[in-house]
Amino acid sequence: MASLEAKKVKADAKAAEEANKTEAEAVLKKLLASGMSADEILEKLKSVWTN
């Protein structure tokens, strides 16, 4: 039973990671489409990560 639970936890984590990746890609595309440069996006990300 523990093995099945571990597999489910792992699968859930992978699904969550994929959902986050998909969301991040959508946000990035939206920002680029709005005219924000890649450098501006990177600066915003850096400020979020360092705070």
Q: How would you sum up this structure, described in words?
A:
With 51 residues, the chain is mainly alpha-helical. Helix content is 88%, strand content 0%. The protein has helices spanning 2-33, 38-50. The mean pLDDT is 91.
Rg from C-alpha positions? 16 Å
Beta fraction of the residues?
A: under 5%
Order of helices and strands: HH
Helix content bin? over 70%
| Shape label | elongated
Extended strand count: 0
First-to-last CA distance: 41 Å
Quick one: biggest sheet?
none
Number of DSSP helical runs: 2
Structural class: mainly alpha
Question: What layout of secondary structure does this protein have?
Answer:
Elements: H1 2-33, H2 38-50
Which structural traits does this protein have?
single chain, 51 residues, mainly alpha
Give the gist of this structure.
With 51 residues, the chain is an all-alpha fold. It has helices spanning 2-33, 38-50.
